[in-house]
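Re-run with default settings, no changes from the original entry. Doing this only to confirm the output is reproducible before filing.
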Amino acid sequence: MRIIGITGGIGTGKSTVLRILEKEHHACIVEADRLAHRLMEPGKTAYNEIVKIFGNKILCKDGKIDRRLLGNIVFQDKKALGRLNEIVHPAVKEYIVEDIRKKKEEQTALYVIEAALLIEDGYKEICDELWYVYAAKEERIKRLLCGRGGDQEKWEGIIASQSTEAYYRLYCDAVIDNGKDLKTTTNIVKELLSKTG
């Protein structure tokens, strides 16, 4: 089984690359953010620990964690964000390691993990290779404004707070320039899979 990690900043089009890998190359896709949300559901790995630390004030009436409320707390307090990450990130990684074991038994050929903090969370030891999805800042802002709304200043601030292009290029094995059209990106993905496959 070939395990590829996909990373890159906001608005670079990681989802586009994932769709190509899933549809054209039948990859098993795991998105770390979505998985983290699932693990925060009642009865799941991270739920009890989060409630223990942040209290019942973060819960909805149905007992689920109000992620918006929790987000408001942690994004104003770096220490609180750190505590949340200490619970969620290891739970996500543990799930992925176990899922990889299962998928190997099922003879899955291509397994893809997408996470913004792939490098920081030590996924290099799990993945055979890391791919960095790149797009120019202007293109990213245009996409974000078009797809998610908000104002330019907000997205510029988020981009500035994320890892730099140089950082991603230093730690990743391949770069996908996703600033052009879909056909170009599809061809880059195909070429990368054939080159190192």
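The beta strands are 2-7, 28-31, 110-114, 129-134, 174-177. The chain has a mean pLDDT of 92.
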